[in-house]
Amino acid sequence: MDEKDKHYALGLTFLFLAVGAFTASHHEMWRDEIQAWLLARDSTSVFNLFANLKYEGHPGLWHLCLMPLSRITDSPVIMQMFHLLITGVTVYLFVRYSPFNWFQKLLFCFGYLVLYEYAIVARNYALGLLLITVFCVLFRERYKRFIWVGCVLFLLAHTSVHALIVTIAIGIALCCEYVFGGRFLQPLSQEIETIENKRPIWIGFALISIGIITAVLQLNPPPDTGFAVAWNFNYEAKRVNDIVKLISRAYLPVTRPVLGFWGSNALTTYPFFQTIQVPLCYFLMLFSVLLFLKRPTALLTYLISTFGLLAFFYVKYQGSIRHHGFLFLTLLMCCWIYRDCSAVSLGKVEQQDTDSIVSSVLNVVGTVVLTLLLICHAIGGITAIRMEHRHIFSYGKLTAEYIKSQEMQNLLMIGDVDFAVSTVVGYLPKRQVYYPRGSRLGSFVRWDNARTHDVPDVLVIEAAKTLSVQTAQEVLIILNRALSVELHEQHNLTFLVKFTGSTVGDEGFYLYLMPAP
């Protein structure tokens, strides 16, 4: 690596951080971002945090990182800063060490997933992207640094269920490479034979295995879980096609320039694209397989990871663009490590010459295809940034600011729907709000089966009246919908303000005040 590469990496990183910081300052966090913050902020200890996490469906590495930050300040803005810094480190490592050309690196840095989904929306997935990048950096000298590889993959397994699937794929591919590679991959065999002490390699594999097992144990839902409990093992042709279409959503995230831009795809609005979408997805997967065919480690990683993710989306939870993005990250990761994977060696010179020509053609076409995909990502990323500046993402932050400006933050509060109102709570220095869904006080949402899925407005008002009578105080009612005029007048409520028209449609809010008895 020369100084020019280093300066280019630093320059792109600073530009990325400048754009990201300006955009993050205009981003109003939504419930999934705030849920993680509330779990870290309002858990009394690490053991209490893991007890609260058992309903979340993700391992707890991100929440562990947030816990010390929540002891510094009650403001979730510190989480945004930390999250952006994680992605900034990822950008630097990618530009500095990846084998792609300068234009592809530029497109990657300002692509939809990197610039918006894993930088601005503060979730646990940015940690996964960083650790995948670190793994790719280490991959070239993996057998000299296998303990470090094991540590990285141990942590990667604990970032999200989707990263766990990728970790399993990498672990299987590395294990097959190490155990069977010597028979078919001659350069690799020589490299492994020169290693005198094999103990670090087995320690690395042990770390990977322990990481996978402990992550799976965390993901094992308790008996009273109430979120995404269904499994779908029945074959349905339409569902299969719908899952396959996720390939195009991940590879071609061209965002629509509208209020509801988040998770949208402009290409799906065209009838022609709808017609070719499924065949295109199969072509992209087949082309990727052909591209990696002579490099078994890259091929195995791609196949196991891609089909593992698609299978998860099919049988458990179809997810959103932030989850589907791991399909593209898998492709990009395999393209990165491809050059450092040993190729299958064939004996005949004529066959080798023919294979060399075919490989050269595939590599050229692969470079063009990857560049086109990254261009689509960049279009999607720039569009998402524009829409983020133009529209309010969630009204949770502004609602909390209004409550504080009216000096009502110390009032008793009741909120419904709980997952929407928790966004407001995250921006308040308040530990407890009464949630009628579940009939309990709290801040973060507990996804157990004690939580009901629907509470009529009349029951919300009755619960507020009960709190008011018991405490002889006013009660602030926070709803993400308007009350009927009859209920409003019948209970002598004071309508305070409404905030509507956000990108996340159900995170607009209506505030009412119930007078003290």
In short:
With 517 residues, the chain is mainly alpha-helical. It contains 22 helices and six strands. The model has no long low-confidence stretch (mean pLDDT 92).
How large, in whole angstroms, is the Cα Rg?
A: 25 Å
Give the CA-based shape.
elongated
Give the DSSP E fraction (strand runs of 2 or more residues).
5-15%
How much is the average pLDDT? 92
Q: Can you count the helices?
A: 22
Q: What is the N-to-C order of secondary-structure elements (H for helix, E for strand)? A: HHHHHHHHHHHHHHHHHHHEHEEHEHEE
Biggest beta-sheet profile:
4 strands, mixed
Determine the fraction of residues in helical runs and give it as a percent range. Answer: 55-70%
Total number of domains: 2
Structural class of the helix and strand makeup?
Answer: mainly alpha
Task: Report how far apart the termini are.
Answer: 73 Å
Strand runs, count: 6
Strands in their spatial order, largest beta sheet: 1-4-6-5
Low-confidence stretches are none
